[in-house]
Amino acid sequence: MVTLTIDNKTVEVPKGTTVLEAAAKVGVEIPTLCHMKLDNLEIENKPGGCRVCLVEIQGRKNLAPSCVTEATDGMIVKSSSIRVMNTRRTIVELILSDHPAECLTCAKSGNCDLQSLAIKMGIRELHFSGEKSVHREDKSPAIIRDMDKCIMCRRCETMCNEVQTVGVLSAVNRGFNSVVSPAFEQDLQDSACTYCGQCVAVCPVGALTERDQTGAVIRALSNPDKTVVVQTAPAVRAALGEEFGQEAGTLVTGKMAAALRRLGFDYVFDTDFAADLTIMEEGTELLDRLTRHLNGDSTVKLPILTSCCPAWVKFIEHNFPSLLDVPSSAKSPQQMFGAVAKNYFAEKLNVDRKKLVVVSIMPCVAKKYERGRDEFAVDGNSDVDFVLTTRELSHLIKLANIDFHTLPDEEFDQPMGMSTGASVIFGTTGGVIEAAVRTAYELYTKKPLPKVEFEELRGMEGLRHATIDFGGLPLHIGIAHGLGNARKLLEEIAAGRSQFHAIEIMSCPGGCIGGGGQPFHHGKSDILKKRQQAIYQEDRNKPIRKSHENPFIYQLYEEYLGEPMSEKAHHLLHTKYFDRSTVFEQDGNASETDDKK
Amino acid sequence: MEITRDLKNHKVQLSENAIALVKKICRRFNYQEGELINILHAVQSQFGYLPAEIQELIAKELDISVAKVYGVVTFYSFFTMKPKGKYPISLCMGTACYVRGAENILNEIKRQLNIDEGETTPDGLFSLSSLRCVGACGLAPVLLVGEKVYGRVAQADVRKIISEYKAGCLTHPTKE
């Protein structure tokens, strides 16, 4: 332990603690900009680059960046001396001198860490002017890069490389020209970007934002020729309230349904319904593969991987083209919903699919990309027309002058608003596999579950595993969230060393509750934990908690699909994956790799 | 060396030999990420430049992201993604050469070839770069075409030197 004094307060901390962390311990909040630490996810970005957290240390000539300076015994630190305050203000002014003053119209306005800092510093005038860095705007289907606003904090780079191991973003060029960019300054859509959106989730400014589709949705809603249906993903209800100042972890399911109805959606449905449908298809596929495997069929591949997460799907398509037969062929809930809405429901309403507009509310930016994939359209008409993030929905509600707090709790419409507790937990890491196990267990053992909740599948560790007793058969399950963790499991599979029967993978840390389209957490990772608790609470509140007991799912199979994995179900609810690797990734043969290691 | 270049799209097709050579260099450095700069050095000395396809190959061999490789290539001014001309022209801008009028010579070359520093003529014959002191200050200002040294170059000599190479009366001065 070391003892030091910060702003006249004495604090004792373990060796290795930074001055910034030590200060927080005695209630001294030193302002930061580039620094970010997500405690229970073991994610940290501290390049020490922005210099906003400078402090004065007695006996040192220069001010020291507190985020990368280790606390030592007897250190005397001043975090708010006149010298520190003046320097910090100058630094923020210098950052602002190369930043577009577009706050009024910036997508990040009100949520921008740089803006907050400028307010905190009381900056009323900019004393520095000169050349500004100018970069080409990059508009992908999901993410917009406006690098004129980049402050080189490198948080996106940390997420893209260290956490997600996607490796698309890197600092390139030098000095004033340096910028975070994909290789060869290509556009994101030409790169191996998975659109997971974790770069967007951590960007402190407006350099990385989602592609806004609120305008298109308003146009659809105001078109009398269109029937507009909306679906909301499980994780949205556990986070939307934050945009209206509510405590993290507040469930706003009923108010959200009410708001959507007031916005003018003709049918307010739930992606959770499609999540139950996913379990029917994916669970059946799991049992099918499992039984064939146990019967000695060597053509069947195990483990089976969940396929709900579009960023994860794109990740495997780019990085593991030899494993494309491993993920379940089941579409994601969003796309299952779109397919059922544009076929079954459109027929029921007797509406042409081109006049039916399907809007998704998602915690995710990759869903914006997923909806546009060619295989999810019929004659150019996509199954899902528009995707809004949780944040965009909140903008729409505010724009429509709806007082969110005084809204009554309303129910979803039927039939596609009916869902079970199993579908709600899709929103958190471990949830999809738990939902699948609830159903697969009963179908396999033909016995009711002794206990619905599987604590062993829950948690926040990036890689987890559990063994579930399936009536004498030990079923080995792996769970990964964050693509870096997923990569470890995939490498095991590629090497033939995987012990698992089934694996759940979610791209975002925490699962969808931590998605790139969720309200910004501003580095506070306990927000994710609270959202996770809210999701489990919603599950407990549901009268039905197993997907195969959803009465409207039964109805859908009876009226339309036949049975899980039927030909019709295959046509509407299953998909295939494509090799998106580059030339050199393809030609890498195993022997070459072996002699390397 | 064995690179077919599609000048329009800046796309190159690496031959089997070229791929094997890059792989060999990566192996020589034990596929160490920390050796990236040395590997890029060695590869550029073979090919004259570092096209995107070579960077992709190096990234794959070292199991690092191509964005990272590109980041290093763009950080150091020594590395170039533009192919050098058949006759790379370098002009010394060191103190001695500079005071004896190197800048005028440089401008004259730019005017004659209609390219800027770091660029290559569209026909692929000439590229232009400046360097600092070749250790022949007595001959200032000094101009190099490949490894052939021209001393006490006057502005009026530039056209003659270039036209000699254009006419093809001088063979490739760089080492094959």
From TrEMBL, chain A:
Signal sequence, start to end? none
Annotated 4Fe-4S ferredoxin-type domain ranges read: 141-171, 182-213
User: What keywords does the record list, in alphabetical order?
Assistant: 2Fe-2S, 4Fe-4S, Iron, Iron-sulfur, Metal-binding, Oxidoreductase, Repeat
Q: One GO MF term, please?
A: 4 iron, 4 sulfur cluster binding
- A Pfam entry, by short name: Fer2_4
Q: Which NCBIfam families match?
A: FeFe_hydrog_A, FeFe_hydrog_A6
Q: Which PANTHER family does the entry link to?
A: NITRATE, FORMATE, IRON DEHYDROGENASE (PTHR11615)
Descriptive protein name: NADP-reducing hydrogenase subunit HndD
Top-down, what is the taxonomic lineage of the species of origin? Bacteria, Pseudomonadati, Bacteroidota, Bacteroidia, Marinilabiliales
UniProtKB/TrEMBL annotation, chain B:
- The name on file for this protein is NADH dehydrogenase
Q: Does the keyword Metal-binding apply?
A: yes
What organism, scientifically named, is this protein from?
Prolixibacter denitrificans
Instruction: Extract the InterPro entries matched here.
Output: NADP_DH_HndA-like, NuoE-like, NuoE_dom, NuoE_N, Thioredoxin-like_sf
What binding details are noted for the cofactor?
A: Binds 1 [2Fe-2S] cluster.
Task: Name the Gene3D superfamilies on file.
Answer: Glutaredoxin (3.40.30.10), NADH-quinone oxidoreductase subunit E (1.10.10.1590)
Q: Which cofactor does it need?
A: [2Fe-2S] cluster
Q: Does the keyword Nucleus apply?
A: no
Record-stated family: Belongs to the complex I 24 kDa subunit family.
Annotated Pfam families = 2Fe-2S_thioredx (PF01257)
Which key words tag this protein in UniProt? Answer: 2Fe-2S, Iron, Iron-sulfur, Metal-binding
For this UniProt entry, the molecular function terms from Gene Ontology, in alphabetical order, are: 2 iron, 2 sulfur cluster binding; metal ion binding; oxidoreductase activity
Binding residue positions for [2Fe-2S] cluster: 92, 97, 133, 137
